[in-house]
Amino acid sequence: MENEKIRARIKVSGIVQGVGFRPFIYRLATSLNLNGFVKNMVTGVLIEVEGSKKSIETFLKLIKEEKPSISRIENIQVTFLSPIGYKAFEISKSSEDLGEASLVSPDIATCNKCIEDILNLNNRRYWYPFTNCTQCGPRFTIIKALPYDRINTTMRKFKMCKECEKEYNDIFDRRYHAQPNACPICGPKIWFEDKDNKNKFFNEEAIEKTIEAIREGKIIAIKGLGGFHLACDATNENVVKELRKRKNRMFKPFAIMSFSIDKIKKFCYVNEFEESILSSNERPIVLLKKKEDVNIIAESVSPKNNYLGVMLPYTPLHYLILKELNDIEAIVMTSGNIKDEPIVIKNENARFKLSKLADAFLMHNRDIYNRCDDSVVTLFNNKILFIRRARGYAPLPIEIPIISKKEILACGAELKNTFCLLIGKKAYLSQHIGDLENIETFNFFKNAIKHFIKLFRANPEVVAHDYHPMYLSTEYALNFNGERIAIQHHHAHIASVLAEHNINESVIGFSCDGLGLGLDNTIWGGELLLLNEIEKFKRIGFFEQVCMPGGDLASKEPRRMALSYMVNALGIDNEIVINFAEKTFGKKMEIVLKQIKNKINSPLTSSLGRLFDAISSIIRLVDINEFEGHAAIMLEHIANENVKDFYNYNIKGDKNLIFETKYMILEILEDLKKNIYPSIISSKFHNTIAKIIVEAISLTSEKYGINNIALSGGVFQNIYLLKRIKENIKENNLRIFINELVPPNDGNISLGQAYIAAKVFD
Ligand code: ZN
Ligand code: ZN
Ligand code: FE
Fold first, then answer.
1. Which ligand is closest to the CA of 743, given by its number?
2. With respect to CATH, is domain 5-91 assigned 3.30.1330.50?
């Protein structure tokens, strides 16, 4: 009986295609003397093996234990059948099947073996910038459809040469079925294009020209994995300033790329955890603390900012450029786009749009199908905190706590938009799309939705959108066929936390951000919510409301909020108020004061983000935002962790708690009069907000008997605030959850919408 043969049919789903999974199965099966086959399906990998029960058990165990490092197994399904007498083990042709599409791998940073290849003078891929293998290279950015075969990618137009084909078909080769496999003979090519004299230089010469140009202080548009970058010497103040001028961007930090951790350590603090994230397969931009007394990186790279956004090379091209530039510690690698537009991905667009920004181009002819920005993360509590989730992470799904009965498309918010396709338990969150304020970004949004629907073979029956009727994402949803559901912004923020932490029970949420339209049609943004069920919420508290003089303009101009809070605390005729108005608005002051007084175009808001803006302007740090969150980020950066003082505040009401901030504003103005340092004021302000949040949580958690607390919204990107909240929590029965797989900002709205919609239709 022991030796009786059985047949097992095994379905493996997850990231099991294009990662060396079938060769691994082949080696494993043959080593155990199992006959049968393995093949790619749309839904994953299908294996059949015949042999003794014992060896099949070992086989199943080893699949899990020894799978290729970049593969990810979601599920293994086994059925036992009677044997049909396979004579050998083979890898069969891919076939189509019905069912849930398999996972699409994100792009993976170049592996060490491929780096060895491109540095080896005797290797045919010496200095070849498109070198990749099953363990690394482009994936999401080149894929058009499943199954993940070359003809379904933008590599389709390159016919493999004999040698590449040999590797591709050799089960023992690292490039066995590496879909983007290529070499200098048959693969994509790079060239350097001078903007002025139109001269072109190819291959190695293109890299040399690029290096030369960067050394000379020029700005080069370099085509990468998910789009173009604008690159220049990050240690050269003049060229960085020039880039700022051309990009019309004075303050928003530029990301930089450095050759190695050792180099980064010369100008930033890097702990072990940060090191592991920097060098992970995902290679995100990591925000690192600058070393104070070091002047290696030009100040203009991230002016008046304590942090630098740093990444390591993630393609062979980056690697070669930075290796050759060994005397330069880092280069700027900022998105190649015109302000507010998505990054450029096409060569002809680059020539047209980036020619005012760049002096020359380093281009290539491997098309980018899915645009994808670099991801940006910061670290809190030895975990990643996403600022932007894109390359390296998208389009991996996030598993929600329930199986959705319907396929759902959630369209997200307006700023920092992402959308989400929910199929079963899997929420396929899109890469960061951006601010849907202009037509180009809106087109990107629409096309990306089309791509996702095709890629994951979805057929959304329900479309979820923000409660705000004027968002372009809402407009899109309203034109989409299907059942529609409007979801309040802050409700969605909280639900996103629940979705990723697998919570399907009552929770108290504190949702703090810039703004979202409330159910009472005022602007919300500092909301304490009670969710007895995921799909329903009650607003049980909010920050004291003030008006936003000028409406939308008040989001862009912190000075407007400053004035509004000051009027709220002191009255409109107060001398301090008038003085501030004069100083910050000049001739325009009468208009703004009138807006406040007569409540013209001045909606009420409880937004905590706007309060951060106000404080930033009251202490004259930032009066006008250059980018979303600008004033608040600067305010965080000057805060000092050693300051433990805080201001007076008051929590009033019982049905609805109101967090009064008047007293704090008065004390801040007192501090200003006493010439207290802005950094101390900022610290005391942060400490006060942390206290209010913790007290509100404690009060309500006790009152409603709920221990699950969720925090979400852009305000919780503030690390200083998060640390203080953590320190202030005394109750150890509270379970505090924050976003870990998606950003706390509006990038998580679509995930929250999807979860709520799934509960509504459950
Ligand atoms: Zn590789
Ligand atoms: Zn070749
Ligand atoms: Fe928000």
1. 3
2. no
**DSSP SS3 for 57:** helix
Residue of 263, 402, 234, 475 lying closest to 334 (CA atoms): 234
Quote the ligand 2 centre to 69 CA distance (angstroms): 26
Ligand approaching nearest to the C-alpha of 511: 3
Cα 116 to averaged position of ligand 1 atoms, centre (Å): 9
Note the ligand closest to the C-alpha atom of 128: 2
Q: Hey, what CATH topology would domain 190-364 get?
A: DHBP synthase (3.90.870)
The pLDDT confidence band at residue 19, using thresholds 50, 70 and 90, is confident
In sequence order, the 6+-apart residues with CB closer than 8 A to the CB of 625 are: 555, 556, 557, 558, 613, 631
Calpha distance 661→265 (Å, rounded): 42
Burial of 86 (0-12, 13-18, 19+ CB in 10 A): middle
| Ligand 1 center from residue 177 Cα (angstroms) | 13
Ligand 3 center from residue 529 Cα (angstroms): 14
Per-residue model confidence (pLDDT) at position 98: 65
Return the SS3 of 434. strand
- Architecture of the 541-738 domain: 2-Layer Sandwich (3.30)
Q: Which ligand sits nearest to residue 744's alpha carbon?
A: 3
How far apart are alpha carbons 131 and 127 in whole angstroms? 9
pLDDT tens digits, residue range 497-547? 999 999 999 999 999 999 999 999 999 999 999 999 999 999 999 999 999
Domain boundaries, the chain: 5-91, 104-188, 190-364, 395-501+744-760, 541-738
- What fold, for 104-188? DHBP synthase (3.90.870)
Q: Using the mean position of ligand 3's atoms as its centre, give its distance from the Cα of residue 525 in Å.
A: 7
Ligand number nearest to the C-alpha of 496 = 3
Strand 376-380 and strand 228-233: pairing?
unpaired
Ligand number, closest to the Cα atom of 161 = 2
Ligand 3 geometric centre to CA of 519 (Å): 15
CATH architecture of 395-501+744-760: 2-Layer Sandwich (3.30)
